[in-house]
Amino acid sequence: MKQVRSMMGTNEEDRQRSAIVCEDVIRIFHTGSVRYRALRGVSFTVEDGEKVAITGPSGSGKSTLLQLLAGLDYPTSGQVRVFGQEISDMPEESLVQFRKDYTAFVFQDFGLLDMSALDNVAFPLMLRGVPRDVREDQAADLLRDLGLSAHLDHFPSELSGGQRQRVAIARALIPEPRLLFCDEPTGNLDSSNAVRIMELLAEEAERRHATLVVVTHDTEHLDWATQTLRIQDGMVADSQDARS
Ligand code: ADP
Ligand code: MG
Fold first, then answer.
1. Closest CA relative to residue 236, chosen from 100, 45, 73, 48
2. Measured between alpha carbons, how far is 175 from 62 in angstroms, rounded to an integer?
3. Max alpha carbon distance in the chain (Å)?
């Protein structure tokens, strides 16, 4: 099996490269005899450490695009390069390794397991064979950083929506991903909580030098974004670069 780390270079080499290059990406779904073009030629570049907002109407292809960038799906044609490495034609087992080494995901419905906040956050480290005391210390530190010191032993059902999303963010951050993908992470929160969670995400991504890509329906609070892409009918309808 190809070794993703060695294929993709050292962290230092990675930093010289664009985090994501998306070139003329097309994704066609076949349902029975129906052929649906969910993405119709999407191109853009994300530099290392950027914070990108993807907006657009429901059904425009935002989630489809995010899945392709995160190595959870293959494009029908076109290329996705992450830190210089083509992932759009990577064999499945290499893609699994790529996701483990490079990516983390935060979803709208939190996706927490039915166990304590501490165990949820420590879980990705357990999968990586980190000893229990080490992973629990790290998880507790991170949860405290995110304002949940009083909730380490709480189960998801004992937490508010905003607290659940903080746990999900801690769980995503703990393996120190280079790329953090979020699909409508504030979609289930009230608006003041939503703004706070988005600021927290942007802050934590920046602190850890992670590249952040967020699908969001909130087009009013995008101050955190270095780049905004509006997707419509499977194409980039508008893009704004706050850095230039
Ligand atoms: P958004 O996230 O912007 O709401 P999606 O990317 O989820 O949109 O979907 C874009 C279009 O692609 C929709 O019309 C949707 O029905 C279709 N689609 C998404 N995933 C699949 C799939 N697995 N099979 C068939 N059609 C799909
Ligand atoms: Mg979606």
1. 45
2. 25
3. 54
Distances 167 to 120, 124, 142 between C-alpha atoms, Å: 7, 13, 9
Give the DSSP letter of residue 114.
S
Query: Could you tell me whether strands 235-241 and 77-82 are parallel, antiparallel, or unpaired per DSSP bridges?
Result: unpaired
Other beta carbons within 10 Å of 2? 13
pLDDT digits (tens, 9 = 90+) for 16-36: 689 999 999 999 999 999 999
Buried b (16+ CB within 10 A) or exposed e, 16-47: ebbbbbbbebebeeeeeeeeeebbeebebebb
Pocket test for ligand 1, best of 28, 29, 74 (most atoms within 8 A of CB): 29
Q: Tell how strand 179-183 and strand 211-215 pair up.
A: parallel
Which tens digits make up the pLDDT trace of 139-175?
A: 999 999 899 999 999 999 999 999 999 999 999 999 9
Q: Tell me how far the alpha carbon of residue 62 lies from the centroid of ligand 1, in angstroms.
A: 8
Q: How many CB atoms lie within 10 A of CB 207?
A: 10
Q: How many angstroms is it from 31 CA to the middle of ligand 1?
A: 11
